[in-house]
Amino acid sequence: MSALLLLLLGLLSLFFFFCLLRGRNRRDGEPPLIKGWIPFIGKALEFGQDAHKFLEKHKRKYGDVFTVHLAGKYMTFIMDPLLYPSIIKHGRQLDFHEFAAKVAPVTFGYPFVVPALQEQIHRSFKLLQGDNLSTLTESMMGNLMLVLRQDHMGGERGGGWRSASMYDFCNSVMFEATFLTMYGRPAGASRHSGMSALRDDFVRFDNMFPLLIAGIPVWLLGRTKAVRDKLIGYFLPHRMSCWSNTSEFIRTRSGLFEQYDALRDVDKAAHHFAILWASVGNTIPATFWAVYYLVSHPAALQRVRQEIHDLLRLDGVEFSSDADLALDREQLEKLVYLESAINESLRLSSASMNIRVAQEDFSLRLDAERSLGVRKGDFIALYPQSMHLDPDIYAQPQSFRVDRYIRDGRLKTDFYKDGQKLKYYLMPFGSGSSMCPGRYFAVNEIKQFLCLLLLYFDLQLEEDQSRATQDLSRAGLGVMLPAADVRFRYKLRTV
Ligand code: HEM
Ligand SMILES: *[C@@H]1O[C@H](CO)[C@@H](O)[C@H](O)[C@H]1NC(C)=O
Ligand SMILES: *[C@@H]1O[C@H](CO)[C@@H](O)[C@H](O)[C@H]1NC(C)=O
Ligand SMILES: *[C@@H]1O[C@H](CO)[C@@H](O)[C@H](O)[C@H]1NC(C)=O
């Protein structure tokens, strides 16, 4: 045996010995522990490749509750959705914000947020809901109409079929309309110049997002830091102060930042950039999947289109493709088939992990029979995608059914697991204290976009394409992107 090989073997065994010493062992009352053989990394690689498959496999072997060693963290997964309520209601012992407060600043490049500011930021989220949502919704409608009309409905080519890439189409319209709605417009112009360059930079940053969230230092990621700096630079106070019609939400946030002398202009700008990410990062892929599923299910599309026409007729609105359309918040709420279609595409495409950090050693009661030993600092995770794709809850879980959430023309809210009614059955927006504050706005803007698309255009998939599949690199972080874009045709309807 060569000396080199001996040396290697020696090192290897030392290494394993070291890991044995340092590794965690299961204690009584704790769930099964899955460590993997690679120190530190644990099972992270396998998890990262296909989280859903990984979790299903371990569920079959270890049951509904197990702990996985993922990149230095011990994460306990609660797989049975009937147990979700017992986790979600433990807001005090199982905290969400500790985790977010660490991850968001390094991802978006702002300094640690002091608790007082954190509290005020949290309160500002109310401006995405309630009365203020009506204003946002109204403004979004105008901006969608503006961008669609100028970019896709004008010109001599007006009458014929046009061909485009579907993700690209959704991205360009939703990105700009959302941007205008949240941040406003330059004084004296209806649109910002350089929007497509901004969007390209955004996509570049967004592609690196999973790596940043995973804690890879930004300086290891090539040009990512430069791209992020450029994006942040867009929101510097002297630029934003020239924009008009900025939403109450963003204006309030700017006002908050002004009260903190410790924040530099770039820090304020980085906060605004983070909100841009929050507001389009998931909404755009969610819009894509909703459009994709409807266009690839023509009967479903026709059902939804009919619902919109029926609503307009009932409300006495004379629709004509020459005139602009306005649909307010109350009208959007009546479109249940449309909402069911959106929920159904979120069920199929979202995979956000809900993470909580244990604040103390304690025994977590799961149900009448079971409790769980939890150590301070442990991560508890829910992975709702497993519920979304559970055939016991959703028959033929992989197929798109436009009326999945409808019964007898009304909202269906009873879904069952093992004969018991589920409190939570659809969780694309997180849960409890970490629930997305933009969820109502998000659903409304997707509804508006779809209404306009279905009313103004005929839509077809181009032939000879394979079905869209998901790029899994975002599993755990939100709505998945398609692995490849899809070609489609659209043509102005003449009504
Ligand atoms: C389909 C679209 C969307 C999805 C699926 C989505 C999903 C989520 C999820 C799962 C979280 C919680 C993160 C966690 O638990 O770690 C979250 C947080 C958040 N979302 Fe959304 N979101 C969407 C659209 C929006 C929009 C349009 C806005 C704003 C206009 C927004 C603003 C936020 C903010 C500010 C937070 C952080 C809340 C906090 O720190 O407590 N989201 N979102
Ligand atoms: C936002 O809501 C608050 C309180 O409901 C209200 O005073 C304010 O006028 C609203 N702003 C907008 C722009 O709707
Ligand atoms: C500004 O927003 C209000 C309401 O959101 C709208 O009525 C008005 O037309 C907008 N102004 C411009 C210049 O777009
Ligand atoms: C869609 O899902 C949301 C929760 O994400 C729920 O509040 C709403 O009632 C659902 N709508 C329909 C039509 O199922």
From TrEMBL:
Ligand binding (substrate): 282
Gene Ontology cellular component list: endoplasmic reticulum membrane
Gene Ontology terms, MF aspect: heme binding; iron ion binding; oxidoreductase activity, acting on paired donors, with incorporation or reduction of molecular oxygen; steroid hydroxylase activity
Organism per entry: Perca flavescens
Signal peptide limits: 1-23
Domain of life: Eukaryota
One GO-annotated biological process of the protein: cholesterol homeostasis
Functional pathway: Lipid metabolism; bile acid biosynthesis
Binding-site list for heme: 436
Keywords, comma-separated and alphabetical: Endoplasmic reticulum, Heme, Iron, Lipid metabolism, Membrane, Metal-binding, Oxidoreductase, Signal, Steroid metabolism
Chief location category: endoplasmic reticulum
Pfam families: p450
Cellular location(s): Endoplasmic reticulum membrane
Family membership: Belongs to the cytochrome P450 family.
Cofactor list: heme
Name of the protein in its database record: Cytochrome P450, family 7, subfamily B, polypeptide 1
